[in-house]
Amino acid sequence: MASKDPAELQMLKEAKEALEAIQSFDVKSLIRERELGELSSFREVVEPAERLISLFRQISPETLEDLPTNILQGHIRDYAIQVMAYFNQILAFQPAQGQGARDQLISQITNYYVPTFSTLFPLIAYANTRTIDLGRVEREAKAVVDRVTKQAKDIEVSLQTQVNRVTEVVETVRKVAAEQGVTQQAIYFKDEASHHRTEADNWGKYTFWWAIGLGAWAITSLFLARWNWLKPEDAYQHVQLIVSKALVFAVISFMLYLSAKNYLAHRHNEVVNRHRQNALLTFEAFVKASGDPEAGKVILGQAAACVFAPQSTGYSQEGGIDAAKASSVVEVLARPITGGKG
After folding, report:
1. What is the pLDDT of residues 237-247, one digit of tens each?
2. Is 31 helix (H, G, I), strand (E, B) or coil?
3. What CA–CA distance (Å, rounded) separates 33 from 40?
4. Cα gap 271→263, rounded to integer Å
5. CA–CA separation, 292 vs 305, rounded Å?
6. CB-based contacts of 329: which residues, under 8 Å, 6+ apart?
7. How far is the C-alpha of 233 from the C-alpha of 243, rounded, in Å?
8. Contact 51, 120 (CB under 8 A)
9. What is the pTM of this model?
10. How far is 106 from 42, CA to CA, in rounded Å?
C-alpha cells in the first residue's frame, strides 16, 4: 500500500476517532428522565438513535485505511460528527428551551437515518466483503459438506440396519403366525365346549327333577282311587280319571324325555368341540414331528376334516351330509391352505 501524505493521515485519524466515538456511545444517556422529568425526557429518541449507531457499528475502523480521503471526510467523519452533534445537543438540553426544541431534536435524529443509510450502505457492504475470509468460508463450507456427507452415510447404514432388523422381525412374526395361526383358532372351540358344558349341566338338573316328578306322580296315581273325593262313582268318572292320569303322565314323560335329549345333545356337542380343540392344539406338534411336507398336508387334511366335516348335532342320528360330500368339502378347504395343486 502506497504511503499517505500528512493530510490524508490526519483525515484518517479524524474519521477513526469520529467512528469510534459514535460506536461506543451509550444511548441510554440520552433519556435524561431524572433531570428533565418523565414528560420532557428523551426516551422517544432511544430507538432511532440505536438505529443510527447500528449503521456505524457495521463499519470496522480497520477498513477506513482503504477508503479515499473524500469518502473518509464526506461519508464517515462528517456524518458521525453530525450525529454526535445531535446527541450533544440532547445532553445539553435544558427545560427552558421549551417543548418545541425538544421535539425538533427528536425529529432531526429520526429523519437523519435515511440519508445516513443511503450514504453508508456501500461502505457497509464493502466492509463486510473485506472482513470475510473467503478461504475460511470455503474451508468451513467444505467441512460442513463433508460432515453432512458422513452423517448421511451413517444414517443410510443405520437405516439399512434397521430395515434388515425389521425384515427379520416381520419374517419371524410371519413364520410364527403361519405356525400358530391354526392352533390359535382352538379358542373358539374351547369357548363353545364350555358353553355346551354349562347348558348340559342345566339340562341335567332339569332331567333329574323331571324324573323325580314322574316317579312322584306314578306313586301318587296309585292312591288316587282310594281318596273319597276322587273316587269314581260310575264308568264315566272311571274313564275321566284314567285319561287325566295318562295325560299328566304323558306330559311329565315328554318333559323328562326332552330334558334328557337336550342334556345328551349338549354333552355330545361339548365332546365334539373338545375334540376339535385338541385337534387344532396338537396339529403343529404332529406337523413338526413328521418333518415331511407331504405328511403335513395329510395332517392338515385330517385337522380340517375334524373342524369342517359335519358332525351329529346330538338331536338326530344323521349328520345331515353323507360321508362322500363331507370328504369333498374337506379336500376343497384343505387345498388353498396347503397350496396344493388343483
Report:
1. 667 767 877 88
2. coil
3. 7
4. 12
5. 20
6. 308, 309, 321
7. 16
8. no
9. 0.39
10. 8
